[in-house]
Amino acid sequence: MKSSQATTRRRGRRPAGSRRERSFTLAEVAAAVGGSVVGDPGQVVAGVESLDRATPADLSWVADSGRARDVSASRAAALLVASPADACGRPCVVVANPTLAMAILLAIVRPERRPSPGISRRAHVHRSARMGSGVCVQAGATIEAGATIGAGTIIGAGAFVGEGAEIGRDCRLYPLAAVMERCRVGARCVLHPGAVIGADGFGYIWDGERHRKIPQVGIARLEDDVEVGANAAIDRATFGETVIGRGTKIDNLVQVGHNVQVGELSLLCGQAGIAGSSKLGRRVTLAGQVGVSDHVEIGDGAIVTGQGGIVRGGRIPAGAVVSGMPAAPHRDFLRRAAWIARLPELAHRVEQLERRAEGRQED
Q: Contact, 279 vs 300, CB < 8 A?
């Protein structure tokens, strides 16, 4: 999308430190996101903001039709909407999915800033490491012997790439991310600060006197287009590989144990934990604080809702939605929760019945 040269006068101030963007017309917005304009296609907007933060020069979006009150209170000049009715009379660009359109637009108007290629003199790169074209290695980063870094990859300040590790092209390791020895990361992967790929799996055996460590001699492997959040940990396998499938997105503070297999395009939300040797299918979703015990199998497209727990050796069928601990089908969980909410009332009724029965026995 080309930016318009026209500008509009701001009626409100942006918070300190926010980015300024060049202006663009609603016609350009529609062309970029595949939508249609309702109102003046030549109307100019100069930023993208949420409904509550938008100024009279900004474009915003309406995630669902139930936000009419928020739209009325917003100062946004124009909106991305699924239906013209959602705009409450304002100029708008109509698209099938306003939130998706917003994501596409933000990537255009606020592109990620990439550092220039080159290896900092304050980085530590072993002479046997192989570096692709256009690689950036920032100060304090360490790349050990025999490691391979793909073209266009950025290794952030203080990040670590272990001996013999392989990083694909166009990846980004943010500061203090670590890929341990021999582990493999596919193309276009993102590791946020503090993410660790290939720490030892949690394997110990009691020998009668102490917990003896079982050597973890396998690796961890990320397929293409995986993103790993801050301070998440993906352990190496005892033997073989721990695998994170293509396009999977992992939130902050997630733990993936040794020999786990996660299918492609899955979502692992914050503080979820998966114990060793469990297998997740394609497009599985683990919501926040879900716990998965060892040797569990979760079928394609299954969803485990927040704080759900899957017991050791559990089997969740494809497409199921489960909740609670131990996890049960979501509807059963809701019925169970409703009965639990009634327990004080039911206990009171039982006490009354017991008193009546005792009174009849005394008579």
A: no
Q: What's the whole-model pTM score?
A: 0.86
Report how far residue 26's alpha carbon sits from residue 100's, in angstroms, rounded to the nearest whole number. Answer: 17
Residue 101 structural domain: 24-109
Other beta carbons within 10 angstroms of residue 346's beta carbon come to 10
Q: Is 319 a domain residue?
A: yes
Structural domain count of the chain: 3
* 8-state DSSP, 33: H
Distance of alpha carbon 232 from alpha carbon 227, whole angstroms: 10
Q: Are residues 130 and 262 in the same domain?
A: yes
Catalytic hit among 124, 211, 258, 330: 258
Q: Alpha helix locations (H) across the chain? A: 26-33, 68-73, 98-109, 330-341, 343-362
**How much of the chain is in helix, strand and coil states, percent to nearest 5?**
15, 25, 55
* Residue 330 known to be catalytic: no
Of 196, 110, 128, 109, the closest CA to residue 160 belongs to 196
**CA 297/CA 318 separation, integer angstroms:** 10
Cα distance between residue 129 and residue 111, in whole Å: 30
Backbone region of residue 208 per phi and psi (left: phi > 0; alpha: psi in -120 to 50; beta: other values): left
Same structural domain for residues 275 and 165?
A: yes
The tens place of each residue's pLDDT in the chain, 363 residues long, gives 544 443 333 344 444 445 556 789 999 999 999 999 999 999 999 989 999 999 999 999 999 888 889 999 999 999 999 999 999 999 999 999 999 999 999 999 888 888 999 999 999 999 999 999 999 999 999 999 999 999 999 999 999 999 999 999 999 999 999 999 999 999 999 999 999 999 999 999 999 999 999 999 999 999 999 999 999 999 999 999 999 999 999 999 999 999 999 999 999 999 999 999 999 999 999 999 999 999 999 999 999 999 999 999 999 999 999 999 888 888 887 888 787 888 888 888 888 888 888 776 665
CB 144 within 8 A of CB 126: yes
